[in-house]
Design brief:
This protein is an alpha/beta fold. It is built from 31 helices and 31 strands. The protein has an eight-stranded parallel β-barrel, surrounded by eight helices. It has a seven-stranded mixed beta sheet with strand order 23-24-25-22-21-27-28, sandwiched between helices. It has a six-stranded mixed beta sheet with strand order 18-17-16-19-20-30, sandwiched between helices. Bound molecules: flavin-adenine dinucleotide and nicotinamide-adenine-dinucleotide. Nicotinamide-adenine-dinucleotide is lined by residues 571-576, 580, 598, 600-601, 631-632, 634-635, 639, 650-652, 655, 658-659, 679-682, 713, 808, 810, 836, 877, 882-883. Flavin-adenine dinucleotide binds next to strand 4, strand 5, helix 11, strand 7 and helix 15.
């Protein structure tokens, strides 16, 4: 499996790994039979990994560590592995750290002394700790929770290292965890038992634009307490990752993007740290001779004694450089990873990138033969960002709205404050609005907080049949002028609305938490998506608004253009209450139609806000009408009404099919057949291949099945797992599900909240009961007994005709199905009446290609979860019983609300043919 993985995954076309890496890994792959090639690859990769991994266990590492010691160098031990999907796995990592200390302490205490004086400052036992492996739910949303849990895991490790007189240092990983890592470190060192410990340290990354602040924070902390701590200065090993993530999310790139800016930052920070040598012991961790020399000369210039700094390098890298530093009499420490190859893969990939990067010193020096003067030239410092000009509304190409970066403490605080603020505004009553007039009725619809059902979030008036007739008449009247406006003008209302929504982002996000029980990230994503729809459809309308010239024949002019359909009824669900409402409504509006918008009765607050944002952009009266009402009134009356020209519906299959049927009956006075677009449910499956990376697949399935309590049309409700990894998958899934946090979504530590109302809870509970009769509960997590909570439940061993496997449940229920191979997996996956989303976890390009071809779903996601489509990137929607219509957030969506027309003009005038009249 290892060799297949390496061969298909890393050496397939499009792989970014350079020639050297390929040859390093593949050896003689060509011309040999697959079997021999596979074993050669295995040999190569195992051999390759041995270059960088000191041993597969602490005991197995001793021989090499002894050699390093005998050569006059020292080491820090690192445990491979950076993912724990459950607390069982995280605890195992913690115990491994504790074991390492035991084994090492026993073994190395007997080794001969190198230099007793030096050992006082640089203890021979040294451990490097990665916090990401120590808590399975580590993240920035649940910041406080992560902080406490990680401290609880690191504390015993620090304690043990301190007891045996050693030193420990916390590695720095992804930027998103940087502040958390620093907080863990400083808060632990503030605890009484560690106040006299001088051998604790932290790695700081100088490729970060925040490096100056990070370094200052540690120095200031140490000075204020008159303490000594260690800083390992590194450039940073996650450069590609940070850049990719920031680009994907639309955030500022946190790392420098010019190599010499990183180098200059490093040299500047090293000077800063050396200047504070009374409080900080520095480890210069670099393989770059210029960087190392800069540190050496700075130390000499600043008169820093040699017991205040050391040099560190990675095991297996830059041997000549380590040798030279050792010869010069500096303390040289090797960073020595211990562990298995597979958990160590991420570490190895970073080393591959480092060794083969065109920007890197090692490649330039040892492969590129770049001359010494160039290699040793002083780096250029970062000049700062040029000020970016703000974009005018609608300007430039479409870009997705960046999600809130919850790694920033101020953003977490701002949302907390926004929730407190909107809480105080609960209980308002909103009118029905049509023709620009507010209409109240004695009747009320009420939206409740599903976490605390006694709390009324808001209430609204209710549309009656008579009001529905008046609303349609008002819309018909307003549409005439609205439909005559240019595409650009109509689009400008959407851009304005996007600006308004952006300005009210925190408020909108906060209301989502209270109105439907979304957690912070889910709530924020719905708001971003709403803004995206406005920006995207505005631009799409401008694109489609220009008539197209068809054909190219002299003397004939053919123009292809669109006209609005008239008055549309938009019926929205509650599960993406802002995005779907705003998306459907704005699409119908920007194409020149007037809209009667009916929000879901379960999400009236967000429904009102969707209306309010669009209306505040200045839409003329009657163009957009807010008509909360009961499904039965709206369903039978408005759907069948001859003045309704089209219906745009998102919701359940049953209601959607009913609408199709009712809208199909033509009434007297009707202009024509009604256009009906329905987007309905799913019974989505994720297939897990035998060689899938379970570190990815387990969290991917959990996020897809239980995110927003499984109440997404795209949610995964079936995991179809190939038997090769079935047992391992179940084992890891069980432990990971046990770790799901459920409670009030106002508290960001809770991954799951309640389902939307009592009726939903009853329906889902009914399915759980049916599942218990038909199959076996693998794992179920208890939930609070107030509020509409439903326990996340995983079933196995269900017969294929169980309704749990066949019907959309729309709640936190997942079934795992075992299959023998990929063909059977596809057969099971495709056996549903629905075809909405699907997922596939695999490392085999051949299987990926097959599944992409044969898994019949509207949206298929490979090696990631199957929810969270993004406007303009993953246009969304299904077929079969999942709906009829073009994908929302895609290039064919708007055309559905317009009628295409063609005007052909004979432009020849008695033999004279003008060149072009358009
Ligand atoms: P150089 O070749 O001079 O620099 C390469 C580095 O420059 C890249 O790694 C990247 O950081 C940066 N870079 C590359 N291209 C660009 C670009 N276009 N724009 C801007 N910058 C660029 N890394 C961590 O992240 N966390 C740790 O805890 C950590 N611990 C380490 C411990 C030790 C003992 C050592 C030796 C390294 C550790 N590293 C850690 C890895 C370290 O970050 C890399 O080894 C280091 O970045 C390589 O730098 P260099 O000076 O050796 O090489
Ligand atoms: P639902 O069908 O119960 O209600 C949807 C909307 O229809 C609500 O506004 C409701 O009041 C209204 N309605 C109810 N009866 C009606 C009738 N007879 N005539 C006209 N309107 C009527 O669905 P829901 O519970 O709000 O949403 C969950 C469903 O939506 C799930 O099945 C889910 O899969 C689906 N959904 C699909 C997509 C998609 O893009 N395919 C997206 C989100 C949700």
């Amino acid at each position: 499996q290892l060799s297949r993985h390496i061969k298909e995954y890393f050496l397939s076309g499009g792989s970014q790994f350079t020639g050297i890496t390929k040859s390093l890994l593949s050896g003689a792959t060509s011309g040999l039979t697959a079997g021999i090639a596979a074993s050669l690859i295995k040999q190569n990769i195992t051999g390759f990994s041995k270059n960088f991994i000191v041993g597969d266990s602490p005991a197995g590492a001793i021989r090499d560590l002894k050699r390093i010691w005998a050569e006059g160098k020292t080491f820090t031990l690192d445990l491979l592995g950076e993912t724990a999907v459950s607390e069982v796995e995280a605890d195992r990592y913690r115990d491994m750290y504790l074991d390492v200390v035991d084994v090492l302490a026993r073994e190395i205490s007997g080794w001969p002394a190198q230099d007793a004086a030096r050992e006082k400052d640089f203890p021979r036992l040294n451990l490097s700790v990665k916090i990401s492996s120590l808590y399975s739910r580590i993240g920035v949303l649940n910041y406080e929770d992560s902080l406490e849990q990680v401290k609880a895991k690191v504390r015993p490790i620090f304690r043990k290292v301190k007891e045996v007189g050693g030193g420990a240092l916390i590695d720095m990983e992804m930027f998103s965890l940087k502040d958390l890592t620093i907080d863990v470190f400083l808060q632990l060192l503030d605890e009484p038992e560690f106040r006299d410990w001088e051998h604790a340290g932290i790695a700081l990354q100088m490729y970060l634009k925040s490096a100056g602040r990070d370094v200052a924070r540690i120095i200031d902390w140490a000075k204020a307490r008159n303490r000594r701590v260690n800083i390992r200065a590194v450039k940073g090993a996650y450069w590609e990752y940070e850049k990719t993530i920031a680009l994907q999310r639309g955030w500022e790139i946190p790392v420098f993007t010019v190599k010499s800016h990183t180098d200059a930052s490093y040299e500047e920070m090293v000077e800063k740290i050396l200047s504070s040598h009374d409080h900080i012991t520095l480890a210069v961790a670099s393989h770059n001779v210029r960087t190392i020399a800069a540190a050496m000369t700075a130390a000499e210039r600043l008169g820093v004694p040699r017991d205040r700094y050391e040099f560190q390098a990675l095991y297996g890298m830059a041997e000549p450089i380590k040798y030279a530093m050792n010869q010069l009499g500096y303390t040289v420490r090797e960073y020595a990873p211990v562990g298995d190859l597979i958990p160590g893969m991420a570490y190895l990939v970073r080393r591959l990138l480092e060794n083969t990067s065109n920007e890197g010193f090692l490649r330039k020096k040892f492969v590129g033969n770049v001359d010494s003067a160039a290699l040793l030239a002083a780096p250029e410092p970062y000049p700062g960002e040029p000020p970016g000009a703000p974009r005018a509304p609608g300007e430039g190409p479409f870009v997705n709205e960046p999600p809130i970066d919850f790694a920033v403490a101020a953003n977490r605080e701002a949302l907390r404050t926004a929730i407190e603020k909107v809480r105080r505004e609960m209980g308002k009553v909103f009118p029905v609005v049509y023709g620009g007039q507010e209409h109240g009725t004695g009747d009320r619809l009420v939206s409740r907080n599903p976490t605390i059902p006694e709390e009324v979030v808001c209430s609204t008036g209710v549309l009656s049949r008579e009001m529905a007739d008046e609303a349609l008449a008002a819309a018909q009247k307003a549409q005439k002028e609205w439909g005559g406006k240019s595409a650009g003008e109509r689009a400008s209302y959407l851009f304005k609305a996007a600006g308004i929504a952006r300005g009210r982002r925190l408020e909108l996000t906060a209301w989502e938490v209270l109105d439907v029980g979304k957690n912070w990230a889910e709530a924020d994503a719905d708001v971003c998506e709403a803004i995206d729809f406005l920006e995207y459809y505005g631009r799409e309308m401008i694109r489609l608004g220009t008539p197209r010239k068809m054909g190219n024949v002299p003397g004939e002019d053919n123009r292809y253009f669109y006209q609005p359909r008239g008055v549309g009824l938009v019926v929205a669900p509650w599960n993406f209450p802002l995005a779907i409402s705003v998306g459907m409504t704005s699409a119908a509006l920007v194409t020149g139609n007037a809209v009667l918008y009916k929000p879901s009765s379960q999400s009236l607050m967000i429904g009102w806000l969707a209306y309010d944002i669009l209306k505040s952009a200045g839409l003329p009266d009657g163009v957009l009408n807010f008509i909360p009402g009961r499904g039965s009134v709206v369903g039978d009356h408005l759907v069948e009404h001859p003045a309704t020209d089209f219906i745009l519906f998102t919701g359940s299959m049953e209601v959607g099919l009913g609408i199709v049927e009712k809208a199909g009956k033509t009434k007297p006075g009707q202009k024509g057949p009604k256009k009906v677009v329905i987007e309905t449910g799913g019974k989505n499956a994720i297939i897990v291949d035998g060689d899938a990376d379970l570190d990815q697949a387990v969290p991917g399935v959990i996020q897809s099945a239980f995110g927003f309590q499984g109440q997404k049309c795209s949610a995964c409700s079936r995991a179809i797992v190939i038997e090769d990894c079935y047992d391992r998958f179940l084992e890891r899934l069980t432990e990971a599900v046990k770790g799901i946090t459920i409670g009030n979504p106002e508290d960001p530590k809770n991954f799951m909240g309640p389902v939307v109302d009592a009726a939903a809870r009853k329906t889902i509970t009914g399915y759980i009961e049916a599942g218990k009769k038909d199959g076996k509960v693998l794992v179920q997590v208890p939930v609070p007994d107030t509020g509409y909570f439903v326990p996340p439940t995983v079933f196995v061993d269900l017969p294929s005709d169980s309704k749990v496997l066949r019907e959309e449940i729309f709640g936190p229920v997942l079934s795992v199905v075992k299959v023998k191979d990929i063909d059977e997996a596809l057969e099971v996956a495709n056996s549903s009446i629905y075809a909405l989303t699907g997922g596939f976890f695999s490392r085999s390009p051949a299987n990926i290609e097959k599944v992409a071809r044969e898994f019949s779903t509207g949206n298929l996601y490979i090696n990631r979860g199957c929810t969270g489509a993004i406007v303009g990137r993953q246009p969304f929607g299904g077929f079969r019983m999942s709906g009829v219509g073009s994908k929302s957030g895609g290039p064919e969506y708007l055309q559905q609300f317009m009628e295409p027309r063609v005007v052909t003009e004979n432009t020849m005038r008695r033999g004279f043919t003008p060149e072009d009249v358009m």
